[in-house]
Design a protein that fits this description.
Elements lengths: L1 E6 L4 E8 L3 E9 L1 H4 L7 H22 L4 H4 L2 E7 L3 H18 L3 E5 H7 L11 E6 L4 E6 L5 E6 L5 H12 L6 H8 L23 H16 L6 H27 L3 E5 L6 H14 L2 E3 L10 H15 L16
Parallel strand pairs: 1-4, 4-5, 6-9, 9-10
Antiparallel strand pairs: 1-2, 2-3, 6-7, 7-8
Length: 333
C-alpha cells in the first residue's frame, strides 16, 4: 500500500510516499529555518504563507522521486491534522482534502506525536510494545505504545518542552536559532559539572518541567554579567545539556520499568541531540533494555513518519476522514 503523506504542522513543508508503513520511496522537505532565524524563532504567519507557496512543488517533487502518479499508484492520502500551529496545519489539511477528493482516495488523519513515534519504523525492526520517548520543540512525553495505534501517556511536560528550553537557553548564551544544535556542539568542549543547575521536581514523577531550568540559565548569565564576571559558554552549554539529558533519561528508564517495557524508542527533533542519545544508550545498556532511535533525517518534522503511522492507522482500524476534517492546535493522544 502506497500512501502520499503531507506534513505542515510547524515550519517544514514536507511530502513523502511511503509503502506499507516501512519503505520510504520519497521524502521531500522545504525548510524555513533561515527565514525564521532572523526573528529568533518560528513566526506562525510567515510559516503559513510559506507552506502555501511550497506545498504544490514539494508534493510534485515527492511523486516524481517515487516515480508515482496519484491516480495510478497512490492508495491513500495522509496528513498531519493535530497538534501544531493552526494556520500551518490548515494548509496541509486543506491541500490533502483537495487531493483526496479530486482523485477519490481515502483520507487518513494522523496525530503529530504518533507520527514522531512511527519514525522508528522507517529504519529497522522496531515494533510495539515499547516506551516511546518523544522529545521535540513542542513536546516532551513518555508514552507506552502497546500496539501501533494503542497509546497511553505516562508522563509529559507541564510547561516548556525540552526543545523550547534548549532554544531559549541557547539564545541567552548568544547562540543563533535553532539553538539546540549549538549547545550540543559546544558542550563537547565543556565541563558538564562546572555549573550546578536545578533538577525540577514534579508531583507525578514521570512528568517534566523545564521552565525553571531555562530561567536558571538566564538568571545565571544576567547575574554573572551584572557583577562583572564572565560565563564560560562551553561549560554552561555542557552543564545545561547534561541536566536536561539526565532528567529525560532517568524518568524514561523509570517509566519503562513502570510500563513493563524492555524497549525504548526515542523520537522528535531533540532525538538528534548527541548527548541525549549517548545518555539513553548508556542507561539502556546498564538496565538490559534495547534502544531504538531514527536516523537524523527522520528526527525533525517530516512526511515519511506521517505516511508510516497512516499505514498502521488505516490497516488497524480503517480510520479515514471525510471533507469535514479540521485542524487542531492542541489535541491529546
Amino acid at each position: 500500500m502506497k500512501i502520499l503523506a503531507i506534513e505542515t504542522s510547524c515550519d517544514e513543508t514536507s511530502c513523502a510516499v511511503v509503502e506499507d508503513g516501512r519503505v520510504v520511496l520519497s521524502n521531500v522537505t522545504a525548510t524555513q529555518i533561515d527565514e525564521h532565524s532572523l526573528y529568533g524563532g518560528v513566526v506562525p504567519e510567515i510559516a503559513s504563507r510559506r507552506h502555501c507557496e511550497n506545498i504544490v512543488g514539494v508534493c510534485e517533487a515527492a511523486l516524481v522521486e517515487a516515480d508515482c502518479r496519484i491516480s495510478r499508484d497512490i492508495d491513500a492520502v495522509a496528513v498531519t491534522y493535530a497538534p501544531g500551529l493552526i494556520g500551518a496545519l490548515l494548509v496541509g489539511v486543506n491541500f490533502a482534502k483537495g487531493l483526496a477528493a479530486a482523485h477519490d482516495k481515502p483520507l487518513i488523519p494522523v496525530h503529530h506525536i504518533k507520527a514522531h513515534i512511527a519514525s522508528n519504523y522507517l529504519s529497522g525492526e522496531c515494533r510495539p510494545p515499547f516506551l516511546a520517548v518523544v522529545v521535540s520543540g513542542g513536546h516532551t512525553s513518555l508514552i507506552h505504545a502497546r500496539d501501533y495505534t494503542d497509546f497511553s501517556v505516562i508522563g509529559a511536560t507541564l510547561d516548556d518542552a525540552a526543545g523550547e528550553a534548549f532554544d531559549k537557553a541557547a539564545r541567552a548564551m548568544g547562540f543563533p536559532y535553532p539553538g539546540g544544535v549549538y549547545i550540543d556542539r559546544e558542550s563537547v568542549n565543556g565541563d558538564a559539572h562546572a555549573y550546578k543547575l536545578p533538577f525540577p521536581k514534579t508531583a507525578n514523577s514521570f512528568d517534566f518541567s523545564f521552565s525553571g531550568l531555562k530561567t536558571a540559565v538566564i538568571n545565571l548569565i544576567h547575574n554573572t554579567k551584572q557583577t562583572g564576571g564572565s560565563v564560560n559558554a562551553p561549560d554552561l552549554a555542557a552543564s545545561f545539556q547534561y541536566t536536561v539529558c539526565e532528567m529525560i533519561t532517568s524518568k524514561a528508564i523509570a517509566a519503562a520499568r513502570h510500563a513493563g517495557a524492555d524497549t525504548l524508542c526515542l523520537s522528535g527533533g531533540v532525538a538528534a541531540n548527541g548527548g541525549l542519545r549517548a545518555a539513553l544508550l548508556r542507561e539502556c545498556d546498564a538496565n538490559g533494555f534495547t534502544l531504538h532511535a531514527p536516523p537524523l533525517c527522520y528526527c525533525g518534522d517530516n512526511a515519511a513518519m506521517v505516511g508510516s503511522q497512516a499505514y498502521y492507522e488505516y490497516t488497524s482500524t480503517i480510520l479515514t476522514a471525510d471533507m469535514s476534517l479540521n485542524a487542531y492546535a492542541t489535541l491529546g493522544l
